[in-house]
Amino acid sequence: MNEHDQERIEQLLKKSLPPIGTRAGAELRRDLWPAMLKRFEAGPTAVPWFDWALLAIVAAWLVFFPGAIPVLFYHL
Amino acid sequence: MPVLEQPSDLLRQFCHGDLDAFEALFREHQSEVYGWIVRIVRDPAAAEDLTVETFWRIHRAHARFDPARSFGPWARRIATNVALDHLKTSRPETELPGDLPSPPLPEPGISEELRRKTARAFGRLPPKLQAAATLALIEEQPYKEIAEALGISTGAVKLRVFRALRLLRKELKQQGIEP
């Protein structure tokens, strides 16, 4: 991709997705402290068992195929 | 709530797990954290939840915070990770969220269909590339700030932005769109 292509795609992107930071949506409309207190009450989220199972599978996969480590880091 | 006169005192008390100090920091930084997150996820409702999640993580990590450093950049770094996690888990066929208070006016010189396809293709990019390109190109944030928030060098940010544009172009080409 040359510089000209890059410039064109950049312009297309800017026209398609206008910045949100300059709009009203970027301003916080309410105090979130009450929501924070609710989060405290809820406590830490438990990790589902299938996440642990997935982690175990990935770990086993990396042990048997260490060449896949760079691929994993790329996708993380 | 006790009077916390010096910012450094506030940060030290936060480090020791003081809830009043945490509340003071929350109230001082919630708008800034929200503003950063909403720029990445482009969804105000999700950004509110993610702001709370960010401060939850901040509270849990209070012991690891160095009070000699600034709170803002540290909070922004955590907020970025929370926003990236959100992009990873909710991979929508992204278009502009519908609940923005002031929807954008149609851009002259670009059809609605092209805008929609571009937005959708952009939403399918890997979250790290999408976040870097959103902050750098759409929100026009300084590369240095983006780099700090992502925990990478400015060169790496530029590389991510370039890769995002290249992937976007490829995606659009596959849809028969020649930008």
Could you name the key traits of this structure?
heterodimer, A: about 80 residues, mainly alpha, 4 helices, about 60% helix, about 0% strand, flat, B: about 180 residues, Rna Polymerase Sigma Factor, Chain: A, Arc Repressor Mutant, subunit A, disordered N terminus
Structure, briefly:
The complex is a heterodimer of chains A (76) and B (179). With 76 residues, chain A is an all-alpha fold.
What can you see in these coordinates?
The complex is a heterodimer of chains A (76) and B (179). With 76 residues, chain A is mainly α. Chain A has a domain at 48-76. Helices cover 62% and strands 0% of the residues of chain A. Chain A has 4 helices and no strands. Chain A has helices at 3-16, 33-42, 49-64, 69-75. Chain A is flat, with a radius of gyration of 22 Å. The two termini of chain A are 25 Å apart. In chain A, 13% of the residues are buried. In chain B, 68% of the residues lie in helices and 0% in strands. In chain B, helix 1 (7-15) crosses helix 2 (19-41), helix 2 (19-41) runs antiparallel to helix 3 and helix 2 packs across helix 4 (71-89). Chain B has 2 domains: 1-92, Rna Polymerase Sigma Factor, Chain: A (Orthogonal Bundle), CATH 1.10.1740.10; 106-179, Orthogonal Bundle (Arc Repressor Mutant, subunit A). Chain B starts with 6 loop residues before the first helix and ends in a 5-residue tail after the last helix. The radius of gyration of chain B is 19 Å and the shape is elongated. Chain B is built from 8 helices and no strands. Chain B is mainly alpha-helical and 179 residues long. The chains are: A mainly alpha (76), B mainly alpha (179).
